[in-house]
Queue: 2 jobs
Job 1
Amino acid sequence: MSEGIAHANTAQRLERLLEISRNLASTLDLPQLLQKIIQVACELTDSQEASILLYDRTSGDLRFQAVADHQRTDLLNVSVPLETSAAGLVFTKVKPIVIQDATNDPRIYRQIDQKLNFRTQSLLGVPLIVEQEPIGVLEAVNKKSDGNYTEDDLAILETLASQASIAIHNASLLNKLREANTNLRNLDRMKSDFIAIASHELRTPLGLILGHATFLKDTVEDELRDQMEVIIRSAMRLKTIVEDLSAIAHKEEGASRVRLEEFAISSLVEEVVGRYQDFATEKKIHLSFDVPENDPLTISGEREKIDVALSNLVQNAITFTDPNGQIGVKAEKAGDKIKVFVVDTGIGIPEKDIERIFDRFYQVESHLTRKHGGMGLGLSITRAMVELHAGEIWCESKEGTGSLFCFTLPISSPLDSAASKVFTTY
Ligand code: ADP
């Protein structure tokens, strides 16, 4: 084929170049792509050999990166000094070089010829440039049929060089992206391991503190009882945090399972609202609920987990609503689902934060200035519990006006439906 191309006219060569460029664009594997580029460079410039050399920052010289198959063992990674080679000149001057008669040209680095038992007679070299910086050189040597390299040869080599440059640049970006991704994954795993270990290790001593404190409270004199109460309350608070952490750890390990039982959402709503009534009254907030009169809204799932999900929403609603505000909890049937809403007239959530509030440890206010307690885990646990039931959760909110949280749960046992996949994978 190279013979045909060698004698073809410019239009035919350009057509071939275009066709090859399209093929090159579809190759993602970098070494394979560079190999193709040197083959095509040989073919279209009618040269005996072609190669790609890349600059090595550590050694400060050029190294063969793509060479013809038969030269691979001798040349791959062999270094070429910048100061005493034609490739070095192309690289440092960032300009092409054309040597029509290389026989006695001092710019040729003869050691490579000696190594290969080869004679460089003519040479064409162009720089590989990425973001205006030279990164290497594409070379073609020994124009066949004793001819001279032409302007067209140079143009073709430059076009191929820009293809190679883009491919090398993309590959390095991809590598950086993969590296960043691996680092992020490692960090995330470390964070998950930490959560799992911390929650596991804290559980036992905390249980002991609570057990002994509760026992002591009943035995100590009256004046110490208040102090024992403080210890117990604080330990209970720690227990909630540890439980939150271990719920997250379980979800991440895929160890969370849903125990299926039939239960009524209506009575759960009533129970949760009742549990938070004192907290709401303390803050002078009106907390009410609305469920259908004649439908218990029965679903198949784990009551305790949905209790955790709903309690977190109600607790947040009270926490982030100022005195004289209102909170409503509503549950209703919507097709084959139950929808549960928690609506408040609280401080609302800035639009930019809405998407992230379900992320672990995410809080709208900064840790340093925040007025409210919490670890930024409540909503991520709520989401985990809802998703374990093949449900969905979302939030609508307006800063200064209030927020609406809504989650859905499928009515029928997910084990009988497509959602069963969700159950078995967790
Ligand atoms: P935390 O335990 O810190 O409250 P959550 O995961 O429950 O963590 O909530 C994350 C953040 O979302 C909260 O810190 C708060 O800024 C915001 N948020 C949650 N619910 C509400 C709400 N009803 N109104 C306003 N902001 C809320």
Job 2
Amino acid sequence: MTDPRRAPEQVPEPSKKLIVALDVDSADAAREIVADLSGVVDTFKIGLQLFSAAGPAFVGELVESGSRVFLDLKFHDIPNTVAAAGIEAARLGVWMFNVHASGGSEMIKRTVGGVGEFCSKSNQRLPLIIGVSVLTSSDSETLREVGIGQSIDEQVIRLAQLAKKSGLDGVVASANEAKAIRNAVADRNFLLVTPGIRPFSATNDDQKRVMTPDAALSCGSDYLVIGRPIIAASDPRLAAAAILKEMNASRQ
Ligand code: C5P
């Protein structure tokens, strides 16, 4: 049977490596940003806020309009529920979605298997399935609070290896851990999706483990997730173009 999964993108253009987080409260606000960035960025992340406000209908609308959609709902539940939710994400035609790697191997394998089977049967394109490692807003104190005594690095590597072993396509992690993940997971096609990116001029907001766009790419990130530095800028199109320029710089 032919695997409907697309071949991994080898060194995509900078504009294909930038994922803009549509962290807004309505479909109209998201449409405005997407229109503003037209021709500059075509990959968008729909997270908990926008999904709760605008639902699957807006996900479908964005997919239909030709954008690549990363559905960032960070699924974490019993294996059966996460697998079923993953199938619905695939049915919507998203390009990428994620699950918490800390949900464990059974949850991940059931999801990867269930989504793969659904996509083969329905001849639907298989989405990339990515594991969330440790949120970029967390630090070692946050881990201690929830009973994890390991360092951030140790925990990220543990979850990245679990994600790889269980069949995920990559992980979400801070760019600060990118090199360590590349060393711990031999497969170069294992994708690193990195939020917590801040161009030189921006503030950190609530992100604790941040890096500039070109530094993140140099450390081995495949995709940069950027929200507020673009969507909260006075001119989002200009902000995105400036970030793409910084990303280009890392290729010189
Ligand atoms: O505005 P900012 O650039 O900080 O947005 C980062 C985006 O990446 C947010 O939508 C946040 O939910 C998401 N994210 C994150 N850390 C993760 C996974 C996703 O910050 N580990």
